[in-house]
Every structure is written in structure tokens, then in C-alpha cells.
Amino acid sequence: MSTKTTIPFFDTESAARKERIRQLKRGFRxxxxxxxxxxxxxxxxxxxxxxxxxxYIAPFPEHAGAGVxxxxxxxxxxxxxxxxxxxxxxxxxxxxxxxxxLSLLMSxxxxxxxxxxGVTLGLIAGYLGGTTNTVIMRVTDIFLAIPxxxxxxxxxxxxxxxxxxxxxxxxxSWWSWYARLVQGEVLSIKEDEFIExxxxxxxxxxxxxxxxxxxxxxxPITVKATLDMGFVILVGAGLSFLGLGAQxxxxxxxxxxxxxxxxxxxxxxxxxxxxxAISFAVLxxxxxxxxxxxxxxxxxx
Length: 301
Hints:
Blueprint: H1 12-33, H2 35-52, H3 54-57, H4 92-128, H5 130-145, H6 148-159, H7 163-189, H8 193-200, H9 205-213, H10 218-241, H11 253-260, H12 269-296
Helix pairs in contact: 1-12, 2-4, 2-12, 4-5, 4-7, 4-9, 4-10, 4-12, 5-7, 6-7, 7-10, 8-9, 10-11, 10-12, 11-12
């Protein structure tokens, strides 16, 4: 009499899905346990909502343009003008809201360009090694040796002052940080067993790099990009302050501070409120970045 042996079926896909759910829950608890991370999340959600809804919630949306209202010039904060008015009578609160749109747009575009270039070069340099790695990383070191603001100033001075040129200039000075970060991550994992298995199966270097290695370096890239959002806003505001960003009457925070710097002792609100908006954005992204760093358990410079 024969007996059949039943081999239990193990659903690997279901187990992997449950593990991902557990990791998500663990990450959420870690993030929620950091009060500053929650504060940062609330700050950035508020900033994004204000930027998206600026045309609808700004009390004087027409003041984001080139209007001149001398009968309302340099009015202090009041119920009508929550943040006062500037020397041409334009409502500062309305202009700060529209400035948030430009700041977030600039940060998003800059980091999209910088990450695309830096991550690609870092992956290629780290995986191929040899002369390719040496050439790419020496060029990267040259860019890292130059302060981003100084390099961006040089590019804008050569191409002309405009919002588009500022975004390109900052991205041109920012990609090297991602190239260095990704190259280091690739060097630490490219000899792991799953990479060796991919090579053994005949995968080319492009497939192995972008299909196997890239997903494993997303965490440090995400954390760095979140922290960099605030710093890009700061650099962009600095260039606008110097007159190298979007030109008047475009409402940028840096240009608004530059306009009010000569009136700090008499009309303090003209420069103070745009400065507070910059601080609000930078702190919010830094708080979120710190929280994500704890959740993803990565270290970035």
C-alpha cells in the first residue's frame, strides 16, 4: 500500500507582500514617532497647498504682476494686508504665496535634472570602474570643489538672468553630489550575490546597473533629495537677491528681500515676511528629510 507525500506549498509572493506591509508599518511608526518629522510634513503640506491655491486664496492676485498702487504703498500689516504692502503698494502676502509656486517649481526642476545626470553617471562610474570611473569621478571632484552658489552665479552671468537659466545653472552645479553618493553606494553592493547572479545569467552592464543596482540605491537618493529641496530654495533665493534670478515683476522671495533690505528700519515687513517664508520652507524639508533618514536607515552627507 503506497502513501503519497504531500509537499506543502509556500506562496513566496504572498510572503513578500506581507513583509513589505510589515516594513511599511514599521517605517510609518518610526516616522510618526519623530515629532519634528510630523511638524515638517505639516509645514510642507501647508506650503504646497498654498502654492497650488495661490490664485484662489491670495487676497490680491493681481499684485503678483507689475501693478503700482501708490495710495497703498508701505502699509504695515493689517486686516486688509496681512503682511503689509511694499513700496509700490503691492500686497506682500499675495506675492509670498505666488513666490512659493516659483520656489517649489524651481526646486523640483533643478533636482530632476541633477538627479538624472548625477545618478546616471554615478551608476556607470561605480559599476564599470577602471578608467571610466576615474574620469567621471575626477570631473565630479572638480564640480564638488566649487561652491554651488558661485558656480551657479558664473553660469547665470554667462547665459543671462532668468528663471530658466537659474534652474539650469543650479542643476549644473548640483549633479555632482548625486554622482558621488551613487558611485559610493554602487561600489558597496556591486560584488553582492544578486549582482553576481545577474552577471551569470548573461545580463549586460546596462540591465544589471539600472534593473538590479538602481532600486537598491533609491533610499539614500530619496533622503538627499528631500534635504536638498530646502537648500535649492535657499540658493535660488540668494541668486534672486543678487538680481540673477527671475526678473521683476515676477514675485520671488529673494527679490522681495532685496527690495526691502533698504527699508528694514522703517518698513521691516517688506523683507521680513519673505525671509520667514524661506526659513519655513527650508526647515520643513529638513525636518522631513531627518525623519526619512531614520525610517530608511541611511546616512547621506
